[in-house]
Amino acid sequence: MRLGSGAAVVGRLILLFLLTLGSAAAAACREDTLRLRGDFGEALFRVEIADDAAERAQGLMHRESLPRGAGMLFLYPFPRQASFWMRNTLIPLDMIFIDRTGTVTRVHSNAIPLDETAIDGGPNVLAVLEINGGMAAPMGLAPGVQIQHPLMPQGPAVWPCEP
Fold first, then answer.
1. pLDDT tens digits for 70-121?
2. Is 144 exposed, middle or buried (0-12, 13-18, 19+ CB in 10 A)?
3. Looking at beta carbons, which pairs linking 135-138 to residues 24 or more positions away fall under 8 Å?
4. Structural domains in the chain?
């Protein structure tokens, strides 16, 4: 049986792992869990929340690793033009930019550790999910993917939390 290239196999294994986690997750929304759905099915990430200026400024700086299936969710009080950089960030990251409806609008893959070049997330960004670099593409995380999280506005959400 041929499994494919190394990168494709790793991508499939990551997706299988995340989908397994997703099927075991409780149906209720939890602040430490972000759910995603798209053409690939559903997946989840365990997330830390950065929802104030100090937490957003610190982000994932100075960390030497990030567990697979984990990430950081940056939340803003209102939609804005979002721009990130990798100052003092030691690991490559994928940045997933999300609008107020919980729809992914842009994905920046493999941000380079310590690079201070601005990464433009575009206008109307309400949240940004940072995950390990190189995970988004094999999973199928792209514009149009939907997220579910209880701290996102539920009124305009395309995938609101169950009451």
1. 999 999 999 999 999 999 999 999 999 999 999 999 999 999 999 999 999 9
2. exposed
3. 135/11, 135/14, 135/68, 135/94, 136/94, 136/96, 136/107, 136/109, 137/11, 137/94, 137/107, 137/109, 138/7, 138/8, 138/10, 138/11, 138/12, 138/14, 138/15
4. 6-148 (2.60.120.1140)
Let me know: does 148 contact 35? Beta carbons within 8 Å: yes
Q: For the chain, what is the mean pLDDT?
A: 88
Name the strands in the sheet holding 93-98, side by side, starting at the edge strand that comes first in the sequence: 104-111, 93-98, 119-132, 70-84, 41-50, 33-38, 146-148
Residue pair 96/119 in contact by the 8 Å Cβ criterion: no
Residue 147, Cβ density class (10 Å: 0-12 exposed, 13-18 middle, ≥19 buried): buried
In angstroms, rounded to a whole number, what is the distance separating the alpha carbons of residues 46 and 48? Answer: 7
CB atoms within 10 A of CB 54: 7
H-run or E-run covering 97? strand 93-98
Q: How much is the pTM?
A: 0.85
